[in-house]
Amino acid sequence: MAKLLLLETATRICSVAVSDGTELVSIKESDSANSHSALLTSFIHETLTNANIKLSELDAIVVSKGPGSYTGLRIGVSSAKGLCYALDKPLISVNTLKSMAEGMIGMNEVKNENSLFCPMIDARRMEVYTAIYDQDNNEIKPTSAKIIDQDSFAELLKNHLLFFGGDGALKCKNVLASNENARFLDDFRISARHMIKMANQKFENQKFENVAYFEPYYLKDFIAGIPKVKGLR
């Protein structure tokens, strides 16, 4: 069974996990904003120590590839690449929205063949990064950036129970909750634990990234804001 180190930094959640096969062995998480650069290295050390696994004993490094926060993704991918280079280990990437859907499906108690799952990552204002998945985590609607209004997902909501989860879903709840087929998984939170199943499948199939050329999936181009420090304007 593969021993994997999994890094999830695509949103404000900083989550690091260690797995052995499909078993979660150790995990460390924080939802403190803008803390990834300060916490990630210590979380890696703590999870490996708690799992009693050495860096050299890992079989691969797994990173959440996006979409999500530009800065968070850069920190996670840079750290994963550094570990891969230093340890000569393969790199595995997992789509952030798909791993979120995996977690949402796992916590859903309503077993209905018409159920669909809509993970949402907060982008800005009423915009979210999202996609639609079925109960087997097959992609029904591809990843996109959407501005949410009362007509969003109207066609799907006619014939399906549509489960929403993630920080983007929380800000859209007031707009979409009036539809009786809309369900909100308020307790759901993004986590490295949701990456384990897909990461193991990729490991078994030897679907590794090119460490030198791999880049996060930003979905949208980064737009720098106006510096607040006077000397940098």
Characterize this entry briefly:
This protein has six helices and ten strands.
Describe the structure.
There is one protein chain. By secondary structure, the chain is α/β, with parallel strands linked by helices. It has 2 domains: 3-95 and 190-232, ATPase, nucleotide binding domain (Nucleotidyltransferase, domain 5, 2-Layer Sandwich); 110-184, Nucleotidyltransferase, domain 5, CATH 3.30.420. It has 6 helices and 10 strands, in the order E-E-E-H-E-H-E-H-E-E-E-H-E-H-E-H. The chain has helices at residues 36-51, 70-87, 96-107, 154-159, 167-176, 196-204; strands at residues 3-8, 14-20, 23-30, 60-64, 91-94, 115-124, 127-133, 139-147, 161-165, 182-184. The strands form 2 sheets. Strands 3-2-1-4-5 form a 5-stranded mixed sheet, with helices on both faces. Strands 8-7-6-9-10 form a 5-stranded mixed sheet. Helix 1 (36-51) packs across helix 2.
CATH class of the largest domain: Alpha Beta
Query: What's the overall average pLDDT, rounded?
Result: 92
User: Structural class per helix/strand content?
Assistant: alpha/beta
CATH architecture of the largest domain: 2-Layer Sandwich
| Radius of gyration over C-alpha positions, nearest whole angstrom | 18 Å
Helical residues, percent = 25-40%
Principal-axes geometry comes out as globular
Strand order of the largest sheet: 3-2-1-4-5
Fraction in beta strands: 25-35%
CATH superfamily of the largest domain: ATPase, nucleotide binding domain
Within the CATH hierarchy, at the fold level, what is the topology of the largest domain?
Answer: Nucleotidyltransferase, domain 5
